[in-house]
Amino acid sequence: MKDLESGDRRSDRAVNETTDELARSDDSLDLPDDEVEHGLLGGRSSRHADTGEHSFSSSRRLGCCASFLRGPEPPRKHRIEPFFKSFQTAPIRMVDRWLPTQKSKLIALAVFLALWASIFLTILDWSIVRPEVPGYGAPNRLSCGSRLWHNGTLCGINGDACRPFDTDGFAFRCPAGCLGELILEPYTVGDQEVNYKSLVIGGASETDPESSYRGDSFICGAALHAGVISNAVGGCSILRRTGEKNSFGSVKQNGISSFSFDSYFPLSYTFEKGTAVCRDPRWPLFSLSVLFTAVISLCTTSPAAFYMSIWFISWFQVALVSDPPFSSDYLEVVSTAMGRFLPAAFVGWAIYRFSVRDTLTGLTAQWEKTILWLGPFWVGALNTDTFDKIPISRLTPHDIKQQPGAIPALIIIVGVIVTTVVTQAYVIWTEGKLPHYLVIYGVMAGSLVVMIVIPQLNLRIHHYILSLLFLPGVAFQTRPCLIYQGLLVGFFVNGIARWGFDSILQTPAALLGDAQIGSLLPTIAAPILQPDGNGVSFSFTNLPQDITGIAVLVNDVLRSHLYLDASSSSANGSSTDAIEERDGRDATTPDTLNVDWARLHQGLPEYFRFSYIKTSSLGGLWYEDFTKAGVLKADGEWVDMPPGPSR
């Protein structure tokens, strides 16, 4: 064997020596200049040699780049080593001692979940279904933004669609947290524009407890302002309509500053404190759910058992109590929650399969899992009480531009996201998976670009979609990934339980809501005032060909539709003939509409706004933007309308 090995080595040396000699003889060739230029026997020219060197250099750079993207060799698999391992694994050892078999553990988990459901449903029934106000029965369920009077156009001519104005009261209940309910689009009160404020107009005070709230105020906001309910636990009260009032003062109390209005409005109301005990159960039930999920987190090592249990408890906590979709009938809330549960659970399984399982498998740091994963999960699941406080209502250019504090908040959010992306990219790189993830996120980015360029539709990134975009990138067992993943899964649960699977592509009308649409405003000639100051005449000129008529708002109440076809025009339905269309479309000036207005109440100012009306081919009216308010003062003086639209 030694001879064979030595023979092999001798033969290898002979081959190497022969190769070296050939190389030296080749290197020592003394070629003529022209042969160097053109190559021996028609070989490559120097230009081709340079191109070859350049191609080799480019290939080498690409190879280096690809090698870098593949990450270190060997890849590093991240695993969390528990701090104070004996302490963190104590719950596991205790469970193994008391429940040594897999079957006993499954039975114990099922019993534990059944116990949670029993307590949860008992408290829910006691606090939501059973309370009644003596003399009124079960109170009407309201959302924080519920109103008796939605706006001037929806309530119809003279507000008739929002009647009754003056009748017996009714009992209602408000949820907790209504102090944070704001109006999210500009809303006009007389000549004031209200935006990103609590819509409360007028109200009682300690010095004037009988004062009323204007009918378009948030009912729950007004009840908070009046002190008849609590922001922490909500409550029940009795609302009494008090008909038309002539003045609504501004009062600051209980954390809300109400807006003033110094003229008449057909609907107002006051409150009586109810005797029923109505408390929003969200925080007691939230405490119950947090306690049970924390115990499950500490005592389970199975990622599937942990995730399934957390998903089940949190879904019904959010969908039924913490942030339910609004309906005046609570059974409808339950129906909606059950209808969304199965499709959400399917997506939840995909989240577990492709993200959560890799993060939690083999993790024995029970306390770290509970604090770093479960804690942020509940922060995301209670998005209404956490991230909704950030002054960005929607990620649209319109909202970001008009909402106070939105731009600094967006800069901070983008900074946090960029930092997170960079740190996660490093984690992915160290695990040798960066090329794979570049493909995944390249496909995602390409899909978003395609959706952006689709005409007549707007890309809308709901927070549940944001979760789905980022969850693949946090499927690693690091402590930051526990935080990110818990937060994102909580976002997803909240988004679907509250809003359902809203489309990623929405029409401009769906995004518009009650916002101004940027339409053409009526052209109004200088008004003609009556000598006694108790009336005014308006003329509308340069009427577009595609309009049907003009709508007239007085004190934020729709008082008339002026149609181009005089035979179909409508006038004020009040007993006083306050408004009169003189000639419809004037015969001598066909592009003009005229209207006369007689003051309804002496000694009070009146606020006038106008908009064009259009009709659809299937019927129904569409109101364009209204002008800002012009004011007929109490003394008969006229104040012109400022430029710009209102709604």
From TrEMBL:
Coiled coil: none annotated. Residues 1-35, 568-591 are annotated as: Disordered. It comes from the Eukaryota. The keyword Plastid does not apply. The chain crosses the membrane at residues 106-124, 288-313, 333-352, 407-429, 435-454. Residues 138-258 form the LCCL domain. Keywords: Membrane, Transmembrane, Transmembrane helix. Residues 1-27, 579-588 have a biased composition (Basic and acidic residues). InterPro entries: CRISP-LCCL_domain, LCCL, LCCL_sf. PROSITE patterns: LCCL. This is LCCL domain-containing protein. It comes from Talaromyces rugulosus.
